[in-house]
Amino acid sequence: MMRPSLLRALIGAVLGFAIGGGSLVLLGGGEMGPGQILGLGYLLALLGFLLGIGAFRFWWAWIAGGEVDPADEHAAHGAAGDWRRYLRFTTDHKVIGIQYLVTAFVLFLVAGLAAMFMRFELAQPGIQVNKDFYNTVMSTHGAMMITVALVSIIGGLGNFLVPLMIGTRDMAFPKANALSYWLLPLALLMVAINPLLGGFDSGWTAYPPLSQQANLGQQAYLMAFITIGVSSILSAINFLVTVFRMRAPGMTLFRMPIFVWAMTVTASLVLIATSVVAAAFTMLLFDRLLGTGFFRPSRGGDVILFQHLFWFYSHPAVYIMAVPGLGAILEIVPVFARKPLFAYPLAVASFIGIGVLSFMVWAHHMFVSGMADAFHIPIMFTTEVISVPTGIVFLSALGTIWLGRIRFATPMLFVFGFLAAFLVGGITGVYLADVPTDIVLSDTYFVVAHFHYTIVGGTIYGLFAGTYYWFPKLTGRMYSEGLGRLHFWWFSLAFHATFLPMFWLGIEGMRRRVADYPAEMGAVNLFVSFAALNIGLAVAVFVVNMVRSWRRGPATVANPWRAQTLEWQLASPPPVDNFEHQPTVSATPYQYGSAAAPSPGHPAP
Amino acid sequence: MTGHVPVLHPEDAVAARRNLLLGVQLGILSEIMLFGALFAAYFVIRGGSPAWPPSGGVDRPELLLPGLNTLLLVSSSVTMQLGVRSAATGKRGMLLRWLALTLVLGGVFIGIQAYEFATNGFGLSDGVFGSTFYTLTGFHGAHVLVGLTLIVIVVNRARLGRIGADRHTAVEAVSYYWHFVDVVWLFLFSTLYVL
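YS: structure for the whole thing
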């Protein structure tokens, strides 16, 4: 029998799809539509894929009444220097982190290409290519970028770093950790091939009734997003158990690196919110496939109900995207300002406050939906209140920088880039939180500009900063500082040149999601498209830097930044089993600036 | 370079047990939110409807069989807990008997549920009443089936002597899940059938 491998997983997926879809074709007696066939086919394909990759092989023995073979389990942890472990069901959290990170960046590039196409279509008034195709590309861009923002930092950097930062050998459930990664490839493939299934034009929000009527591509997206949801719930349970149960001796909650706090709050949000959107998408799928009437007014259903359920997840999801970015930023600032993290306990409290409040603001996406008027004022109030903890996190970064001895290396440049972009995002958010202005600005490019300023500003700047900062730890090599700076300046100038004019376009009334606009906006849009092309070129510089440095960059030392968190006390890259001896922790990791301060995180001899 | 196989220490086993139980509790939290969303949809749709069931010749199911099912499922939680107690005190024979009884009670529950589905006289696509009724009870029934499967696995392990007083985490984990499924049914019974 072949060993579990990617090839066998693909064969399993094809076989699963053939069995699932084929049985419906044969047994359904011609009554089964393509939707049902795709539905069952996808489910069994997913199962076949996981079987082929070997995701269940350890559990089979247990289910059959035996015990897991420890030698086999140990082998699945992977051996140092074996690149094939990145293509296998490997349980080492560091391998899984890199799998997530690389997958997220590939997805980022594909979704970025989709954005380039959108700006090509929008460069001139009128239709350049095709309206329907524009809608599909727009929806796909959104769905993919949302996924990037959801999984890149927590799945990539979080998986790699959290066990190292709290001084343990792995996540609490290494096999479930690998499973949560391997749930993704087929789901992402479904999103990527949706144009072949007729595409979808609802955007990632998938509001009915449009999403009930749209093509098979819509269904592909719904199923894929539910799969991604299941994967993130598994991953969230893993993070929470790891953080609460597996910290090294002396690693009290308030000695944890702030990044670990950010991951903990994020994982809690994922755990609580995600099953709500999974339920909403499932009801929508039932409406499409099984004839239910949840969101069909003609059968007594309620369309606005979908929006409530969707945003009950998707507003916390905005913080699921932003909080990891904020955590990475706060982790980096003290190292490059050589000062303790300013107001660390308040920053922790703010993360928790953001988490709690994020469940009370969802309906600010729905001021024009026709929902009950009684919601308007309370939701406006909670939305404005959530800017207080967010502002405290921002001030924590500023307070750390203040009077510090700043090193302007690439990660720190991205911290400054974050401060500029996220500030604009936060201030413009006030106009969308306030009901009177939101009613005017809703569904215009003002909203597009605002959320790109928050998600690119919060998540993507945090992701870039974190990727440069931890690159030596991840790979054992140093990136090119020159290319890093070029990336930062080019990206930042192009980013602001793209999205700042969109505020103006939105105030002028340019509608989002639409392939065309009034002719008098042509000049500004041409400028925006040109600027957007420069974002793409700047990201290409990043890709070249990462690929070249990973292959041929100069070897680096264990702690090139002289940082104090535990991961930097290990070799770069860390050994397969992380800590040879159990480390003991005696202080917070932010004791910068006092000459006598020992590095508090040295593993005990 | 690492050919050695790590040895499982007793303290590792204690940690693994605590980790697993916490993981199951967190998983149940996410399941609560799943059913919470379904219940929310049910209440919003029902609240927006002038009559319940909405007119159209659909009647709510009789209370006799679901009432019996409620008794079955509540008793199965009791037998499950007695099984956990037997496991914790190392009484394998008693554990097997209690779990087998739990299986029977759960199995009869599913059987009655299937009979009810077949004889209700309305279907999934008969308006929002059928949609919410079958989606909620169907999701719950699927959870009962998963629970039964887990109990079968645990029974098999107990039969092979792999469960003892010092290692019965699996029984406990399955019991958490089973009680959760039971509590969901109490909510379903009181809102879908009674209220």
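YS: worth flagging: The two ends of chain B are 66 Å apart (CA to CA).
IM: good catch. Also The helical segments of chain B are 10-47, 64-88, 92-119, 127-159, 169-194.
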